[in-house]
Each structure stands twice: as structure tokens, then as C-alpha cells.
């Protein structure tokens, strides 16, 4: 046996001659954080599998155990060889379960199973084993460089060697998996599995297949910008994982009968933090609609993908897919389905949603309360649910929690939420693959990002809207004087934002994005300037925000008007007209009794968005040293 970067590499014969205890010890050396339950499972299940493969005469084939994918999770076993009837390279995904029974599906899940975890009647829900292997196989086919494009065939088997009543996994809500029942083997079916694999695989070893597989690389993003064009022409958009699968199945079931006159209006709310794959699910719902009712051409058919006004995201989606998203107020009448992304940005929610339901039977909104960046944005989960109640519209509310961006950010977003919203000042125990780094020297950071870009990485600078925006990339609006020298950058272009998003030219990295050109986008690596509009007050142990550091006149004006004032002048420090008096911003916030916690939350939301655009690394430079040290301490940087 030998250790690869992400698995234990061996042969069937070698495993067959090794005890369960020795196998568990070898895997424990690879997975040092493994639990006792995992070790017991390895020692019990893997020898049973090895015995079946030995009886099939496949001793010389390569076996990978506990293969970890960038999409998260681990494949129990992969058998690598060639198909007997064609000689083509073949990868078999094998899911092992020690289940002896399952609980009653009282929740009506379509893809999750209740499994007893103790003799005391405690249960946990787990992904259906068929769905697990389907997800793994699809991920390999679409994202593994040695497999994509049909270079290798991928098949799946599920082996539940303690489970006598496997038919329970294909009844009721699990009926969708029935066509794959013959790929699942339970207790007493060991010989049938051995015969199946003997007929499937040649016994001839293919070390070249193993070498190519292990040398392969992954191309994994949350969703490609060509996805809208693909789903409208009835092509799959992305691999869905974990909670995405269950949410997708629930909603796609709702599409049946959508064109019935008696079909009641339905509102579907899908909520989740950045990186949980809301857009992936939304696009797949549109794909499922097109699959059932026909392609919709250029986003003008019965199923439509729409946005609140968001020029950057619209330009990027159109540039990548050739299809322009429709703005909410422009959705034509007589539609069946509208999928509204970035729905937290909806203003005048009651009017906007009333208008949408005059145009469509089902509205799916994708939202995140903590991506609201103006007080006038009303697209919270509570407001959507309230709208449905008040208007007698059937509601289906779903949440996504697991991070998928870049093959799992782990706890990064929840850690960031603790830092920003919970006032955490003790170090967090982080469990994220994303690289997070604070820089003392801004120019050093700039050079580092430039080097990443030269390596072919997708890199972008972001900053809060704390400098004048001239509207021209010829003007270096952002100027920061540091001890090492002067940092000068232009803001991103107003037009041509798809080319800027792609970032293939050196000058694209010299054009900095802000909050309005961040939402909905992702990159490999980002640099973020943390300015003086948000700082940590060590004495009061709270976050402080300063609107006089913001040059975002629309943002500041919306706050002032919300609390009864009127902004005067075109630049900070801001002056406000309130009750026939002109006053400073600080005086206005005090005299108007403005909800400063609500204002602070908007600024925190802004930084949360800026800090969650990257898939691999986030690099931060701080204008305020105390804030830098606080973030370093809490986030263990």
C-alpha cells in the first residue's frame, strides 16, 4: 500500500491479504482526524469488499480507498481498470454502508435517509447512497481532467453488506432511484456482485489508467458564466452537492402540472450564505423546466432567469452565455416560471412581487439577508414569507448551508459571520482550505496579486466605495500613501465589465471593483482593502462605522432620507439638512435617533460580500492597525 495526495493506493489482492485492523491503521495514518466509528467501519467493510473483488478475479486491479475530491467528502473506494467488452479505461465508484436498517421517511425526503446511529433509537439523516455515487460520478465526469469528455468511463455500485431489505431504499419518495436498484447490493448478494464485476471488468491490470487518474487535475467552480445559455438549451449546468440535491429535488417535483390552469401560484424562497450554490440550484430548476416543457431560446420563453437591476452581473452573464438576464420589472406576461437571483436587492418588495405574480405562476427567489447593502432593499426571508401569507400564495422555503465554492470553503463564511456580526474577540478554530492572509505592506500585496495573475489565476482587487468615482479608467481615483510608496488604482470600467471580469489583461488588475461589481461573482484570488469606514474599537469591543469615509453618495443619501433628512453637497465630510438645520453626519444620526445598528449592519454586509468572492485565497490590507490585529487574532491569521 502507498499513500497518494488524497487516498490510499493499493491493489485488490493486497487488500484481500490484509486484516481489517491493518487496513484501519493504514487509513488512520492518512486521516489522522478520523473517529473511532470511521476506524471500525473501515476494519469491517473493506475486507468484505475485498473478498467480493477477489472472488471476481480482479486481484491485480488498482484500488483507491478513501479518495478525497475537491468537491468535499470522500469516495469509499474506486476500482480502476478496463472494461471487459470494450477495453476502454473504466473507473468504478463504490459506496460502502454498514447500515442494517433505516428509519421511516416521515419528513418526505426525496434524497435523504434516516439511519440509526445508536441502540437507543437515535437517528441521523444521511444522503441516499445512490445519490452519493451519482454525485461523485457526475463530479468526476465534468471536473476531472482525465475523465471529462469521455476519456474514461465512470460507473457506480452501492454495497450495503449488512442490509437485508434494500427495497426500502427504492420505495415511496425514493421511487426516482428505482431504475438504479440493480446497482445496489445488500446482505446475501455478495456472489451476484462478484459476478457483475467479473462481467464488467477485465482482470488485466491497467496501471496506466491509475497513473492517468491520479495525475488528473480538477477544474471546479461554483457555476460557469455560460450556464444560462446551457440550461435554456436543455444542457446540465453543474454538479449539485449535499443539501443542494434535496432542495433541487423538492422544487423540481413542484414543476409537474405547472401549465395546468388549476395550478396555484407558488413562491419558492432559497436562502443561503455566499458560496452555498443558490445560483447552481436556481439554474438547475430552469434546466429541469426546459427539459420538461422545451427549450426557451434566449431567455424569452416560459421559464426566465431574472435579476434586480445589477449592471455588472448582467453584463458578465450575457458575456459568458450570450443570453441577457431579464430585469424583474421587464418580465413579460404569461410566463410559467421566473428564477430571480440576488433577490435580497429587491426594493418595494410588495409591488415587485405582486407584479411578478401577475406575470408568472411560480417565482423562485435566491436570497441572503446578509447581502443587503441598502436600507431600501427589502428582500429578506421574513419579508418574502410575509408577502406569501398576506397574498394567499403557497410558500416553499428552503435553506442551503454547506459551502461549495472552490470545493468547500469549510467554515470560512460562518467564521467570518462570527467575526463581523457576533463581535467575537477570541480566536476561532478555523477549518477551511481557503488561504486567508493579512498584509502589512500594500505594495507587496499588489505585487503578489500581479504574480498570481501572471500564473494564469483569476485575480481581482476589491475595495469599499471610499474614494471618488470619476467614471473613467484613465483616472487613478484610488490613491493611498504608505511608508513603502504610493498605491494608485482606477475603479473598474462602467462598460465592458465582462472583459474586466475575465481579467485576462494586466490592466484589469489595476481596475478595482467595489460592492456594486462584486455580488454574484467569484474569482480564484482576491485582494481587499479594509478602509476606515469600518474599524474595530478595542475599548468598547464593538465595530464602528464612519459614513464620512464613504464616497457612495447614493448609499449615504438613502440612509439620510430613510431617517428624515436630506443630504447636501456632493462629497464627504457630509452635511445634512434636518428639521430646517444643516448639520454634520454625526449630529444628524444623533438628533434623528437613526438606527445605527441597522446602518452598521449594511457596512458589515458590504465587507462580508467583498471578503467572500474568492475560491482559493483572500488577501487583506488594513488602513487601521487595530482592526488588522483584531482580525488576525480572531481569524488565526
Account of the protein in words:
The mean pLDDT is 88. A hairpin with a 6-residue loop joins strand 4 and strand 5 (89-97). By secondary structure, the chain is α/β, with parallel strands linked by helices. A seven-stranded mixed beta sheet has the order 1-2-3-4-5-8-9, sandwiched between helices. The chain has a six-stranded parallel beta sheet with strand order 12-11-13-14-10-15, with helices on both faces. The two termini are 36 Å apart.
The total count of strands amounts to 27
Computed Rg = 27 Å
What level of helicity do the residues show?
25-40%
Would you identify the regions where 5 or more consecutive residues have pLDDT less than 50?
A: none
DSSP helix count? 20
Structural class: alpha/beta
Terminal residue distance: 36 Å
Main sheet summary = 7 strands, mixed
Strand content: 15-25%
What is the averaged pLDDT score?
88
Strand order of the largest sheet: 1-2-3-4-5-8-9
Instruction: Name the shape in a single word.
Output: globular
